[in-house]
């Protein structure tokens, strides 16, 4: 997938940090590809990139405008169309991870043709997919799973991938969502795959490989989330993971976008994910727990992780605060 960079990250008038995870992912994991961010009045969050207008970004060399949102439903707000048109007229490609297709909006297609730019709907698979079979395949695979959505599955997988690559291990990051695809430049957004083909899509994404090769597969959703559990289950079956890492967000009172529905406990999450993973890999095991502790201070974060380690007998880390070296050690010694 060819996505022209540098990027101008458009985050609109967002007020929720989790709603701009597409833009944040690019800024955090591919900062060399990001020249700035475009914010509208009322925006209360930031990627940390310099604020720029479209004309300023063009002068700075921006090649694409990234629609950096991950809103509920993945819809394109009509109020953003003037910004998109301005970027097209300035010669920028448009990169979208929304469910709404840019290519289905005639006025954007006409504008792109007029100014010689491309519309990239990276959330929508273009390859032909097949149904899953669950046959054993060589190579090793790790999948991140979670107590909820947006708890750090992608960040954990990317952090672990980079740590193992630094150690010259034979690993590949496999993106399964639009944010991961923007960072990696390839992958399959599993939540846009027809349900019958989810497991098969993951089998294609992480196929048979060398015996010493690890595919590190980005998890999606949660088996406990009423909206996304179907995606999570298909991903789990198709991955046939040898290793699982459970991800959790400390201090979250309700599941993402569902008020009054508490997150499951870690023990419950481990038990259900292992039960479902062993449908296609009877030897699947949980090797560690990754926690987003940004809601508490360092002392509380360390204490929580130590308590979890004592309870479950496996490493518990915040990948951003503490790093993932201890998780990488387990993979290296596998």
TrEMBL record:
The D-glutamate N-acetyltransferase-like N-terminal domain, residue ranges: 42-125
InterPro entries: DgcN-like, DgcN-like_C, DgcN-like_N, P-loop_NTPase
Signal peptide: none
Record-linked Pfam families: DUF1611, DUF1611_N
SUPFAM superfamilies noted in UniProt: P-loop containing nucleoside triphosphate hydrolases
D-glutamate N-acetyltransferase-like C-terminal domain location: 131-327
NCBIfam families (alphabetical): DgcN
PANTHER family in UniProt: DUF1611 DOMAIN-CONTAINING PROTEIN (PTHR40690:SF1), GLL3100 PROTEIN (PTHR40690)
Name the record gives this protein: DUF1611 domain-containing protein
Organism annotation: Pseudidiomarina insulisalsae
């Amino acid at each position: 997938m060819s996505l022209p960079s540098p990027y101008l990250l458009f985050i609109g008038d967002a007020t929720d940090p989790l709603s701009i995870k597409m833009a944040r992912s690019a800024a955090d994991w591919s900062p060399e590809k990001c020249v700035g961010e475009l914010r509208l009045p009322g925006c209360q969050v930031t990627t940390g990139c310099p604020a720029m207008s479209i004309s300023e970004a063009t002068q700075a060399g921006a090649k694409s405008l990234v629609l950096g949102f991950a809103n509920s439903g993945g819809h394109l707000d009509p109020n953003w169309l003037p910004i998109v048109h301005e970027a097209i007229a300035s010669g920028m490609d448009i990169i979208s991870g929304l469910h709404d297709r840019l290519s289905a909006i005639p006025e954007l297609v006409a504008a792109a043709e007029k100014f010689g730019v491309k519309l990239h709907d990276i959330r929508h698979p273009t390859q032909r997919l097949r149904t899953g079979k669950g046959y054993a395949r060589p190579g090793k695979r790790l999948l991140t799973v979670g107590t909820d959505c947006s708890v750090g599955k992608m960040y954990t997988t990317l952090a672990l991938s980079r740590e193992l690559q630094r150690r010259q291990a034979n690993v590949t990051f496999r993106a399964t969502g639009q944010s991961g695809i923007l960072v990696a430049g390839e992958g399959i957004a599993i939540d846009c795959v027809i349900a019958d083909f989810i497991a098969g899509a993951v089998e294609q994404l992480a196929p048979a490989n060398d015996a010493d090769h690890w595919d590190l597969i980005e998890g999606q959703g949660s088996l406990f989330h009423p909206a996304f559990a179907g995606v999570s289950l298909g991903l789990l079956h198709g991955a046939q993971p040898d290793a699982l890492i459970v991800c959790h967000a400390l201090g979250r009172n309700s599941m993402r976008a569902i008020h009054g529905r508490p997150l499951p406990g870690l023990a419950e999450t481990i038990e259900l994910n292992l039960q479902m993973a062993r449908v296609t890999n009877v030897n699947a095991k949980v090797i560690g727990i990754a926690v987003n502790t940004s809601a508490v201070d360092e002392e509380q974060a360390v204490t929580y992780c130590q308590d979890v380690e004592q309870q479950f007998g496996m490493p518990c880390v915040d990948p951003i605060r503490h790093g993932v070296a201890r998780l990488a050690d387990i993979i290296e010694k596998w």
